[in-house]
Every structure is written in structure tokens, then in C-alpha cells.
């Protein structure tokens, strides 16, 4: 196969699909030397090509003003070959074709001979043995892992179901060796990073002139201590008590 450019789903879809792709019919009847059920990541192949020139730069592909690459799982496609064992047809293709065309236009500009077969589809399993392919499909249907006919629901487990494919990254993958040795060479995100929140403006609080003058008065003109009212004064504290007429009269009577 050489090299490939993959469209990879969102992280949530990626997790659910990866879990589903671990499904195996039980009990296993395969020989230990079988190459069936290799582990690989969920993806839609945009293009494959035999040679990778040094001038190819994934980040240089213009991808501005393209519609969001989002599709639904439409139907199951079964094949008679190892790489065509079982895949999911994605629709509508119109949502994904502009991205594929932008990628292949860049390949054409670099004179890279590319292929894009059965686009868009997503492979789930690679199985060598014809009997095992039939057994796998029947088990997936019977256990409710694939539900529906024209509009599918893929179920990894009761809490992980997925119906759509949201393209979030493009991967450049080295596929020159066996499937289990495929290696990701480069990743490019299709999701724009969220802008940082604007800094909060701190507005200094203005002190009113009234409050300032009040504090100044307290500082430079302290208030006199409170004087208790006349009714609360002790009797022997009246001013000039010794010189009053009543006081002298009482003293004379006592004498």
C-alpha cells in the first residue's frame, strides 16, 4: 500500500470505535499463526500512494473554507478480501469530498500518483479466513454491536454507542509493512483551538469626597468624650454643692 492519508474521528468517537474493533467471536477457532484481527486505528482513507517525496508537507495543504467533515454510518459493506473484510459506508459523501479533493489536489501538484477506492468507507476488521468473516458478521449482528440497515448504530458496550464520524485530524501513515506495524508519521488537527478568554479589567474604586473629609475630621478634630446626662450624675457630684443655700440650711439643722 505504501503511504496513506487518514481522516481520524473525534476523541469520543475514536474511543468507542476502538473498543468495538476489539470484538472477537467466541470461542476462537483461528490458528495462532493467523494474521486476522490486527490492531489498527479507526479512520477513513483519503488517499494512498506508493512514494513519499521529501517535498511533501502535510501542514502545507490548504484546508480553509471547507465544510465540516461529518458523516453518518449508513450501511455495512462486506468483502471477500483481507483488507475488505468488513467496513462501514459513510454518508453523505458530499460532506467529506471537499476535504479529500483538497488533499489530492496537493498530491497532484507534487506529481504524486494516488488512489482513493470506495471513498468514503471505514474499515472495522481485517480477517483472512472466509468462514471467520461470516462468523464475525453474524456475531456482530446477533449481539447488537451493529444495528440498523440504512442508518447504523455501532455499539462498543451499552454505554458507548456511536452513529456519526466527525473528522478531527489528518494522519500521514507509513503502511509499507504489515498492518500491525503501520506507523503514524505526522498528525494535523482540523479543530481550531479555542481563543483564550479576555483578561478581566480591574477598575479601581473611587473614594467619594464625603468619605475622605469625614476621615480627615476624625483624624484632626476628635470628638469630645460623651458627658452623661444630669439625671445620671451621682448626688455628691453636683457643682458648687457646698455653697448652695439648701446645703447650708441642712447643716445648721444638724448642728
UniProtKB/TrEMBL annotation:
A molecular function (GO) term: 2',3'-cyclic-nucleotide 3'-phosphodiesterase activity
SUPFAM superfamilies: LigT-like
Biased amino acid composition, Basic and acidic residues: 203-212
Pfam annotation, one family: CPDase
Region annotation Disordered: where it falls in the sequence: 188-237
One record GO biological process: cyclic nucleotide metabolic process
Protein name (database record): LigT-like protein
Organism the protein comes from: Armillaria gallica
Taxonomic lineage: Eukaryota, Fungi, Dikarya, Basidiomycota, Agaricomycotina
Amino acid at each position: 500500500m505504501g503511504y496513506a492519508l487518514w481522516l481520524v474521528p473525534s476523541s469520543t468517537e475514536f474511543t468507542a470505535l476502538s473498543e468495538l474493533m476489539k470484538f472477537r467471536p467466541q470461542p476462537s477457532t483461528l490458528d495462532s499463526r493467523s494474521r486476522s484481527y490486527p490492531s489498527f486505528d479507526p479512520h477513513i482513507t483519503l488517499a494512498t500512494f506508493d512514494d513519499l517525496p521529501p517535498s511533501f508537507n502535510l501542514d502545507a495543504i490548504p484546508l480553509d473554507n471547507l465544510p465540516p467533515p461529518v458523516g453518518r454510518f449508513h450501511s455495512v459493506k462486506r468483502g471477500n478480501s483481507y483488507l475488505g473484510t468488513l467496513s462501514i459506508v459513510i454518508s453523505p459523501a458530499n460532506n467529506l469530498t471537499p476535504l479529500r479533493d483538497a488533499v489530492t489536489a496537493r498530491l497532484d501538484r507534487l506529481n504524486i500518483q494516488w488512489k482513493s477506492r470506495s471513498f468514503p468507507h471505514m474499515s472495522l476488521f481485517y480477517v483472512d479466513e472466509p468462514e471467520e468473516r461470516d462468523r464475525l458478521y453474524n456475531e456482530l449482528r446477533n449481539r447488537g454491536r451493529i444495528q440498523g440497515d440504512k442508518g447504523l448504530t455501532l455499539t462498543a458496550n451499552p454505554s458507548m454507542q456511536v452513529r456519526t464520524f466527525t473528522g478531527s485530524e489528518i494522519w500521514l501513515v507509513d503502511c509499507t509493512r504489515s498492518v500491525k506495524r503501520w506507523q503514524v508519521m505526522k498528525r494535523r488537527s482540523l479543530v481550531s483551538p479555542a481563543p483564550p478568554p479576555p483578561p478581566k479589567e480591574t477598575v479601581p474604586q473611587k473614594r467619594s469626597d464625603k468619605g475622605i473629609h469625614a476621615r480627615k475630621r476624625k483624624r484632626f478634630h476628635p470628638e469630645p468624650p460623651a458627658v452623661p446626662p444630669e439625671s445620671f450624675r451621682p448626688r455628691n457630684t453636683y457643682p458648687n454643692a457646698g455653697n448652695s443655700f439648701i446645703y447650708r440650711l441642712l447643716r445648721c439643722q444638724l448642728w
